[in-house]
Amino acid sequence: MATGRGGRHWAHGITARAARAGLAVAAPLAVAAALFVLFLAFRGSHGHPPAQSSDPGTTRGVTPAPATTPAAKTAQTVAGPSPSPSPSRSAAPRWHSDPLAAAASYAAQRAGTILAAVYDVRTGQTWRLGQGQPQPEASVVKLNILETLLAQRSSGLSAADKPLAQLMIEDSDNDAATSLWYAAGGAAGLQAYNEAVGLADTTPSSCVQCAGFPWPGWGLTTTVPVDQLSLLKELIEPGTLLTPAERGYALSLLENVTPSQRWGVSGGVPAQVTVALKNGWLPLNDAQTDWQVNSVGWISGDGRDYLIAVLTTGNPSEQYGIDTIDQLSAIVWGAMG
């Protein structure tokens, strides 16, 4: 924006030269007229800036033309499409109706107890399905173990812990999980981390070798879906407990779960969409007619960005529980579109 300083110097130079020229009798009138014209020019071009409208991008209701400097042209050519509008002018995120409402009628037809929750990352909306007591986590607790370890180790996982963490998440290896459960401080270590996250209804198991239970006892840690959403939020939203590098590391493991375990919250999701998940499955009786089957994860792509957690208990078989979560998750995927 011109300051007006150069304009005043230019006008002063002309009037001085006109006075020295010894104009004729008509000169005063001509000089006066010239000065008046110059005064108007000075006011319009070099005086105070014109009044602005309430929108800083306009003056007197006229929208300025877009910048056409070589730098601006080059950036648009190299980058391809024009950049997204600034947050102040971009459209507000589209609020969704409850995606679990469409799944409720399906869930009502299934055996056992189904608890689910969905969180829309863009709008901050949270929805819940079902009522009941906290359920056993099975291998979903391995995500909790990983986050606890990452939060405890300011310099990152040790060289010995990293391969165990990969086995625990990508292959759901139980022996690796047991080793890292102890490394994280067991139930006390997880409880301290969970309190920092703000989990209200998650209780770490008090035993690893539990009487009358043939499987690792950490799988009997109990939780609710909204607590699992809180754990997932620690991985996709900035926070104070995990660094960006730690969040990226954990997500890389969840995104590379072995193909045979990529069921559950990935149900109905196209292959090109990012899915970071952890599943759990556990027979709760010797006859294996009462199965706990769970799936939690982050779904991002194709116009969607949400977290989902589904816990199911009382399934007559492992596959029955998998089918239930697959179908419910496919309904949610469609409703979030």
Secondary-structure blueprint:
Blueprint: H1 5-20, H2 27-46, H3 70-79, H4 101-108, E1 113-120, E2 126-129, E3 135-136, H5 141-152, H6 161-170, H7 174-183, H8 186-197, E4 222-223, H9 225-236, H10 244-254, E5 274-283, E6 291-301, E7 304-315, H11 318-335
Antiparallel strand pairs: 1-2, 1-7, 3-4, 5-6, 6-7
Helix pairs in contact: 1-2, 4-11, 5-7, 5-8, 6-7
Note down, in words, how this protein is organized.
- By secondary structure, the protein is of the alpha+beta class.
- It folds into two domains: 1-18 and 27-47, no CATH class; 101-335, Beta-lactamase (3-Layer(aba) Sandwich), CATH 3.40.710.10.
- Helices cover 41% and strands 15% of the residues.
- The protein has eleven helices and seven strands.
- The chain has helices at 5-20, 27-46, 70-79, 101-108, 141-152, 161-170, 174-183, 186-197, 225-236, 244-254, 318-335, and strands spanning 113-120, 126-129, 135-136, 222-223, 274-283, 291-301, 304-315.
- The strands form two sheets. It has a five-stranded antiparallel β-sheet, with helices on both faces. A two-stranded antiparallel sheet has the order 3-4.
- A hairpin with a 5-residue loop joins strand 1 (113-120) and strand 2.
- Helix 1 runs antiparallel to helix 2 and helix 5 (141-152) crosses helix 8 (186-197).
- The chain is globular.
Number of helices: 11
Give the number of DSSP strands: 7
In percent terms, what proportion of residues is strand? 5-15%
Q: Mind telling me the CATH superfamily name of the largest domain?
A: DD-peptidase/beta-lactamase superfamily
Helix content: 40-55%
Form type: globular
Gap between N and C termini? 47 Å
Gyration radius, in Å: 33 Å
Q: Which fold name corresponds to the CATH topology of the largest domain?
A: Beta-lactamase
**Which blocks of ≥5 consecutive residues have pLDDT under 50?**
1-90
Mean pLDDT: 81
Strand count, sense and barrel status of the largest sheet are: 5 strands, antiparallel
Structural class: alpha+beta
Task: Please tell me the total number of domains.
Answer: 2
CATH class of the largest domain: Alpha Beta
Strand order of the largest sheet: 2-1-7-6-5
CATH architecture annotation name of the largest domain = 3-Layer(aba) Sandwich
The topology string of helices and strands comes to HHHHEEEHHHHEHHEEEH
